[in-house]
Write a structure and sequence with these properties.
The chain is of the alpha+beta class and 264 residues long. The protein has helices at 52-66, 148-163, 186-212, 215-226, 231-240, and strands at residues 4-11, 27-30, 33-38, 42-46, 79-80, 90-94, 97-103, 106-114, 142-145, 175-178, 244-251, 256-262. The chain folds into three domains: 4-114, no CATH class; 139-228, no CATH class; 229-264, no CATH class. The chain has a five-stranded antiparallel sheet with strand order 1-8-7-3-2, with no helix packed on it.
C-alpha cells in the first residue's frame, strides 16, 4: 500500500461545509457541525459475512494509524456507507480532501496524498449559494417505490408480527424514483434540502403546531433539538453520569432517539 501523509489547514469560522463537497463525495451536517469530502485516495474493504463491520473497523484503524499527520492537527477521516445485509461486502473510503467542523467556529481542511507528493490545491469555494431554479418536476416524473398501497400493506404485516413477538424492530425504506429529464446538480440539491429543512422545522412547524395546539410548546420544539450533543458524546455523558450499559436506538429515521441505561 502507498504510504500516505496528511496536511491540515484551519479555515474561517464562517466557511460553509457544503462548499467542501464535490460530486462523488460525502456530506453530513447537523446544526452547522459535520463533514464534507471530495476525491478518494484509498479504499478499505471487508468481505461479506458475519462481523464484517468489525473487520472493516480494524482495517480502518490500521490505515489511519499509518497516515503521517502533523502534530496537533485533526485526525484524518474515513467515510463509509454500509448495507444492512451481511451478505453484502462493506467498504470505507479515505477522502483526498475533507472539510470538517466538530466544534462551532473551528473548521479544518485535511488533505491526504501519497507521501512526498504535494496535495493538489484544486478549486475551493467559501460558501454555496442558490443558482437559477429549474421548473418544478411534473407528477409523472416522480414514482414512489414501493407504491403507497404496497408500503401500507408491508407496515401492517410488520406491525402484526411485532405484536405476535416475532420481531422487535423493522426498518422499512421507501425510495422516490425521479426521472428528471436533465442532469441534477447534487450540491445545489443538498443546499436546497438543507435550506428547506431549516425553514420547515424552525418556521412552519411552530406556526402550524401553534395554531392546532400549545403555541409555546411548538416554539420550544426547534430550540430543544439545537443544543443536543452528537450521539457519541451523548452516550459518553450518560456514562460519565454513572449509567451502565447505555444503549441508543434511533427512531423514525433519526427524528427521535431512545436512550436506555442502568444505574446502581
Amino acid at each position: 500500500m502507498t504510504a500516505l501523509a496528511a496536511s491540515a489547514t484551519r479555515l474561517g469560522p464562517a466557511f460553509d461545509l457544503l462548499a467542501g463537497y464535490r460530486e462523488g463525495g460525502f456530506f453530513l451536517e447537523r446544526s452547522g457541525v459535520g463533514v464534507a469530502t471530495s476525491g478518494e485516495v484509498d479504499r478499505v474493504s471487508a468481505e461479506a459475512g458475519p462481523e464484517r463491520i468489525l473487520r472493516l473497523s480494524r482495517s480502518v484503524v490500521e490505515v489511519l494509524a499509518a497516515i503521517e499527520a502533523e502534530p496537533g492537527s485533526p485526525v484524518p477521516a474515513v467515510v463509509a456507507s454500509i448495507p444492512f445485509d451481511d451478505r453484502e461486502p462493506a467498504e470505507a473510503i479515505v477522502p483526498r480532501r475533507t472539510t470538517v467542523r466538530l466544534d462551532a467556529g473551528e473548521t479544518w481542511q485535511i488533505e491526504i496524498a501519497p507521501r512526498g507528493e504535494t496535495p493538489h490545491a484544486g478549486e475551493r469555494e467559501r460558501w454555496t449559494g442558490r443558482t437559477l431554479p429549474h421548473d418544478a418536476f411534473e407528477e409523472i416524473q416522480l414514482r414512489p417505490d414501493p407504491e403507497p398501497d404496497e408500503y401500507a400493506a408491508a407496515v401492517a404485516r410488520a406491525t402484526e408480527r411485532i405484536r405476535r413477538g416475532e420481531l422487535r424492530k423493522v426498518v422499512l425504506a421507501r425510495t422516490m424514483l425521479v426521472n428528471a429529464g436533465r442532469t441534477l446538480d447534487a450540491k445545489q440539491l443538498l443546499w436546497r434540502l438543507r435550506a428547506g429543512h431549516a425553514l420547515y422545522f424552525r418556521r412552519i412547524v411552530p406556526l402550524i403546531g401553534g395554531a392546532l395546539s400549545d403555541k409555546e410548546a411548538y416554539r420550544y420544539l426547534p430550540r430543544s433539538t439545537a443544543y443536543l450533543p452528537e450521539p457519541e458524546r451523548l452516550l459518553e455523558m450518560l456514562g460519565e453520569a454513572g449509567f451502565l450499559q447505555v444503549e441508543r436506538t434511533p427512531l423514525g429515521g433519526g427524528v427521535a432517539q431512545l436512550l436506555l441505561g442502568t444505574r446502581r
